[in-house]
Amino acid sequence: MPMHYLFTPEGDAALVAILRGRPLIALDFDGTLADIVDRPSDARIAPELALRLATLTEHLPVAIVTGRSVDDVKGRLGFEPQMIVGNHGAEGGFDLREEAARRAELDPLRRLLIAHQMQLSGAGIDIEDKGLSMALHYRLAPDADKALTLISDLLERLDYPVRTFAGKMVVNIVPLLAPDKGAAVHDLVAACTASGALFAGDDVNDEPVFESAPDHWLTIRVGQDHPESRAQYYINQPQEMQRLFDRMLSVLITPPASGTASPAKP
Fewest CB atoms less than 10 Å from the CB: which of 57, 111, 209, 212? Predict the structure, then answer.
């Protein structure tokens, strides 16, 4: 089914319906709460957005589900969510021993990339080691096609199975059996006994959430660059997240009309 624009009467009705329960609010970071920037270290949530998110945590459980590591994203938020899951779903779960084992699974890849670090750097490729995943950024590469060819050639030399997926000017590599964002959000819903989830994301690694979401969840893609997305709704750009949060808070804070149930608080 095609995505529909969220800010319509139909989209608003779906938003109000999910908020009348006690949903988990799960949100991607880059490209959703923060603009995509040339250097990932520059990304931050705007203060006015962080203020709305802080208020939202007073009413519902809020989770950040990001490709970044947990430690990396914490200082970029400007508010404290109840939960953070990092590394595309692989970090921040409930089994630390499994996380440690998966971290070690990427050691052969680390050795390969270190051995070719000068070649990668010369092609404008930046290596980001996030512990439970690796990211090869080529946003600053003078020739993106050549950068992708170099990355592909190097990964073919790896004799250890990993899972790779593209992003916005980045190639992500995770352990073969690491959980994805879809599994992570389902686990979070169960952990906080939520009625469902409202999830917003903008990239390929968010599709597992969109694809696995039950009908009563609300899924939102930021941007229309992926027409085959399985998200139910879309907004055009991260700047529209403020409008979404304002509407959510108006529903959560405004007393319901007579005869309707009020949204439960955590």
Answer: 111
In CATH, what is the architecture of 96-175?
Answer: 2-Layer Sandwich (3.30)
- Per the CB < 8 A criterion, the answer to whether 69 and 130 are in contact is yes
Q: Which of 28, 72, 180, 206 is catalytic?
A: 28
Q: Is 28 a catalytic residue?
A: yes
pLDDT at position 97 over 80: no
d(CA 174, CA 20): 37
Largest CA distance in the chain: 68
* Residue 88: HSE in the Cβ half-sphere, 13 Å Cα cutoff: 27
Q: What is the pLDDT of residues 101-159, one digit of tens each?
A: 888 899 999 999 999 999 999 999 999 999 999 999 999 999 999 999 999 999 999 98
Structure token digits, residue 245: 């949060």
